[in-house]
């Protein structure tokens, strides 16, 4: 029974685990809290099979390519050199785009549909849109990306792990969108990572850490790092995570769901 008085358990009908059957028929997804259950392997196997068939809840599923881990060079001290930026877009995987300066709305054409719709990517903001050709015009040479590089840069939060569960990840993304999209923040590059730099963000007015706030709310987990220069900030993040676990906030509402073999499923203790 959870804190709200709801019963949580397994229902078997004629020897069939109904949870596994629903996942197998692509009618539901595996919740991350199932990773400590005795039926975890059966649930994950059923989900993998449903994903491959691309049926029902997985009809639009696209397998995420495995990213190569980029080794991080050791530094003697952590460098904190925050600069003001404007957050223009938050993505579904909790990456974000920022601008250093205000610019015009330049766009790159990504795809043209047969019906005349044009898919564009705003290179100075990081967001996408579909427009009719009548809304578009060639760029003057002075504003070409070769002359003026794209002003929107992609970043990812340092020191946190984004939940793999879609609903939990959506909660974290919604929180970040409410707090920082279309606002000015302070950004510090912590280290390079696969795809884009990993950074910490601060609210411009309070100077409080946006990523640390997500940890305090139990919306994300801490990414363990062993570099000496990061140990002070990692300790602060881990203390915040323990407080969120004790209060059973969001990810931790059913306790510590990470099993000893959590690495197998993409989580680290």
Helical percentage: 10-25%
Strand order across the largest sheet: 3-4-8-11-10
* Mean pLDDT over all positions: 82
Written as H for each helix and E for each strand, in order along the chain, the element string is EEHHEEEEEEEHEEHEH
Task: Please identify the top-level CATH class of the largest domain.
Answer: Mainly Beta
User: What is the beta-strand fraction?
Assistant: 15-25%
How many whole angstroms does the radius of gyration measure? 22 Å
Describe the biggest sheet?
5 strands, mixed, barrel
Low-confidence stretches: 260-267
Computed structural class: alpha+beta
Examine the coordinates and then state which fold CATH places here, giving the name of the CATH topology of the largest domain: OB fold (Dihydrolipoamide Acetyltransferase, E2P)
Number of domains: 3
| Count of helical stretches | 5
Total strand segments = 12
Name of the CATH architecture of the largest domain: Beta Barrel
Give the end-to-end Cα distance, rounded to a whole number of Å: 25 Å
Rough outline: flat
What is this structure, in a nutshell?
One of its GO terms (molecular function) is RNA binding. The protein is 22% helix and 22% strand.
């Amino acid at each position: 029974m959870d804190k709200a008085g709801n019963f949580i358990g397994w229902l078997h009908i004629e020897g069939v685990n109904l949870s596994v059957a629903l996942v197998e028929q692509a009618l539901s997804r595996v919740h991350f809290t199932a990773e400590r259950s005795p039926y975890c392997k059966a649930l994950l196997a059923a989900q993998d099979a449903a994903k491959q068939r691309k049926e029902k809840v997985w009809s639009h599923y696209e397998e995420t390519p495995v990213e190569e881990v980029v080794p991080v060079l050791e530094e003697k001290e952590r460098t904190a050199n925050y600069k003001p930026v404007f957050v223009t877009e938050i993505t579904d995987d909790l990456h974000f785009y920022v601008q250093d300066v205000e610019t015009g709305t330049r766009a790159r054409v990504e795809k043209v549909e047969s019906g005349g719709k044009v898919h564009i990517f705003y290179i100075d903001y990081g967001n996408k849109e579909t427009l009719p050709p009548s809304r578009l015009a060639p760029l003057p040479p002075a504003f070409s990306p070769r002359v003026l590089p794209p002003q929107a840069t992609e970043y990812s939060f340092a020191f946190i792990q984004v939940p793999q569960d879609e609903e939990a990840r959506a909660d974290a993304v919604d929180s970040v969108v409410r707090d920082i999209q279309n606002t000015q923040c302070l950004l510090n590059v912590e280290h390079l990572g696969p795809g884009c730099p990993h950074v910490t963000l601060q609210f411009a007015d309070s100077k409080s850490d946006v990523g640390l706030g997500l940890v305090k709310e139990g919306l994300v987990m801490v990414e363990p790092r062993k570099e000496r220069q990061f140990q002070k900030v990692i300790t602060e993040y881990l203390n915040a995570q323990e407080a969120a676990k004790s209060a059973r906030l969001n990810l931790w509402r059913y306790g510590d769901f990470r099993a000893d073999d959590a690495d197998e499923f993409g989580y680290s203790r």
